[in-house]
Amino acid sequence: MELKVRLRWAVLLVGVALCLGLAAAPHAPPALPGDYFFAESFARGTLDGWVMSSGKKANAGMATAYTKYDGEWEVEELALASSGAPEGPLRGDEGLVLKSKAAHAAISAKLRRPFVFDAERPLVVQYEVNFQRGIDCGGAYVKLLTHDPSDPAGLDLGGFTDRTPYTIMFGPDKCGDEFKLHLIVKHRNPATGEVGEHHAKKPAKQIRSYFTDKKTHLYTLVLQPDSSFQILVDGELVNSGNLLNDMIPAVNGPAEIDDPEDSKPADWDDRRTVPDLDAVKPEDWDEDEPREVPDEDATMPDGWLEDEPESVEDPDAARPEDWDEDMDGEWEAPEIGNPRCNAEDTPGCGPWTLPMVPNPLYKGKWKAPKVANAAYSGEWRPRSVPNPDYIEDLRPFARLSPLGAVGLELWSMSEDIFFDNFLITSDREAAERWAEQGWRPKKEAEDAAAGRAEAEEAERGNKGPAGRAVDWVLANGFYAAVLLIAALLPVAVRLYTSRKGGNVVPAAATGGAKTNYKKTDEPQPDVKDEEDEEEEEEKPKDLNG
Fold it and tell me: Which end of the chain lies in a sparser environment, N or C, as judged by fewer CB atoms within 10 Å?
């Protein structure tokens, strides 16, 4: 009967696995929005349209002036082991993966057409990131590379480096315990033509979990023609402001600046206090008293071994075979800490001396006390003059340089950073639909898997091997079916052949233990065939006894 139960379990598990495997729906990439400047879901499974940089990164202040961008990029499926959610919505969902760690990596792709900032349409930038192996130090931000309409050759993506001009940098970055969500905007001063780099203030919301939970997160930047901006993660607002008021440094510089020609007058005294010239050292002030003195009340602790040295020769040390006394001198064994001094009941070894305590008579070197400075002129500052470069730009959005490409120029100490579903558009509703079709299935699958993992962990102690096997099949679908069939088929065959093969003595005939006898010439007990015995058990018993 036990054999039949095993076979039934095997058939049941294989059936469940096959059903779930067939039911797992394949991944469906998001539909392209109606109007967009760039959209990439990696549904083709290739890097078509993307260019890996062959340029070199500048290393300021280092022995090597330049470093190659040798980080590796691949298009791969979201790692099921990392996401914890191998259901249909994730199976086949491929994205761009940074495979290398401790290496500089750069890759970029051109927009369908340049995005030109004007007063009529916003800029919406959106993409997904999953730190599949966590993140120690590194970034996952995007650079929106600047398009120069006057350059007929256009952007050289093969030469993309850290020096390639960009208009906006946006996305997560971490090193040590510092978690950042960058928004960096490069604005050209209309008066001087100089390009300044301006950073958004830090988010007020806690963003640590986006880096540590190993889930796929959706990063969205919305920059409006009125120069206001919103930064969202997973559709929730985490930072907002305006390019005019909430950037460091401010987009519009100060109207006045310190006069570079001004200098502090020679008679200007900016000392708030000065030594009291009328003060004298007290007669009882002894500068020779030491800071610490021996504690005369102390006594040697019980168990102190005064005759034991603190260190002894290492008894296990041996003179090296190549030691030459003529060249190296007389060999002496190295010393180690005295084992007797390290015993728990031994407070110490060697000559005991009185411990030192603070000296109550110590006063140190005398200094005259400070008093208010009667000649204090105040804190000096140079006078203010009009800023010759000042111009009040009330529409910085419209003055941003056009966008021509999206690029990732990164260095990370963690590998397998997953990027997916890049979108650059002016239609916020289109971006929300793109997220619902591309990111939402990931979130639901990952959240469901996390919830199941917690519940399963709580119930794991109450389940037997069969129950855990069924749970595993339920969690892994089609792939589980293939593996399970491959694993159980030899077991089932073995069980079947062992049932039909040698002579099996039922437990009833051997006092509770089954015995397999080899074919020999030795006499064996007369035992009924197991099938006959089972048939007799299944026959109805005589009701008359």
Answer: C
Check residue 382 and report its DSSP letter: P
Q: How many structural domains comprise the chain? A: 4
Other CB atoms within a 10 A radius of the CB of residue 450 amount to 16
**Cα(33)–Cα(421) distance, integer angstroms:** 12
- pTM of the prediction? 0.63
Q: Are residues 20 and 39 in the same domain?
A: no
| Bridge partners, 103 (sequence order) | 412
Q: Which of 311, 308, 305, 306 is nearest to 333 (CA)?
A: 311
CA distance 390 to 384: 14
H or E stretch at 19: helix 2-23
Q: How far apart are CA 400 and CA 75, in angstroms?
A: 32
84 shares its domain with 213: yes
CA distance linking residue 314 with residue 255, whole number of Å: 76
d(CA 75, CA 97): 6
Does the structure show a pLDDT above 80 at 483?
no
Q: Are residues 239 and 318 in the same domain?
A: no
Among 341, 352, 269, CA closest to 310: 341
Q: What does 472-493 look like in DSSP terms, one character per residue?
A: HHHHHHHHHHHHHHHHHHHHHH
Q: HSE (CB half, 13 Å, CA atoms) of 200?
A: 26
> What whole-number distance in Å separates Cα of residue 486 and Cα of residue 500?
22
